[in-house]
Amino acid sequence: MRAVLQRVSSASVEAAGSPKASIGLGLVALTAVETSDTFADVEWLAKKLVQLRVFSGNEGRMDLSLEEVDGGLMVISQFTLLGVTRKGTRPSWHRSAGPEQAVPLYEGLVRRTEALLGKSVVTGVFGAEMKLSLTNEGPVTLILDSKRKEI
């Protein structure tokens, strides 16, 4: 799984022209499921999202996690994160899992992060056209990749 993670002071998502959900201080994770992903990738990414220390503590350093600041988490499906642009001018999506594989893993990520955080996680609508508004705080933006196990 691949995620672009942004620390935000606020974020909201709209689907089908209607507001869907919003958060205040927290993280937005734009997330893509790759054809080779399994629930082991879900587990790795869920722990990273909850435990990654990207919020400022008393000394102004990034040393607090999402769970320590009691922040919100928004997980948005975005298969285009796995687009391959090596050849030509049209991206290839061959690495992106189809809905039959991606939906259970995406929903598993949401459930697992909810269990780790002990509260609800905000989502968009899987596979839908959405409008996402956010205020990136910092700015802090990281790319997480469960295959490389690094950020």
Task: Characterize this entry briefly.
With 151 residues, the chain is an alpha/beta fold. The chain has one domain (2-145): 3-Layer(bba) Sandwich (D-tyrosyl-trna(Tyr) Deacylase, Chain: A), CATH 3.50.80. It is built from three helices and eight strands; from the N terminus they run βββαββαβαββ.
Alpha carbon gap, first and last residue: 12 Å
Radius of gyration: 15 Å
Q: So, the CATH homologous superfamily?
A: D-tyrosyl-tRNA(Tyr) deacylase
Q: Characterize the overall form.
A: globular
Which structural class do the helices and strands define?
alpha/beta
What is the overall pLDDT average?
A: 94
Helix content: 10-25%
> What would the CATH topology be?
D-tyrosyl-trna(Tyr) Deacylase, Chain: A
Please, how many domains?
1
Find the count of extended strands (DSSP E, 2+ residues).
8
The stretches of 5 or more residues where confidence is low (pLDDT under 50) are: none
CATH architecture, by name, is 3-Layer(bba) Sandwich
SSE series: EEEHEEHEHEE
> Count of helices?
3
How large is the share of residues in beta strands? 35-45%
Give the CATH level 1 class. Alpha Beta
Q: Specify the biggest β-sheet.
A: 6 strands, mixed
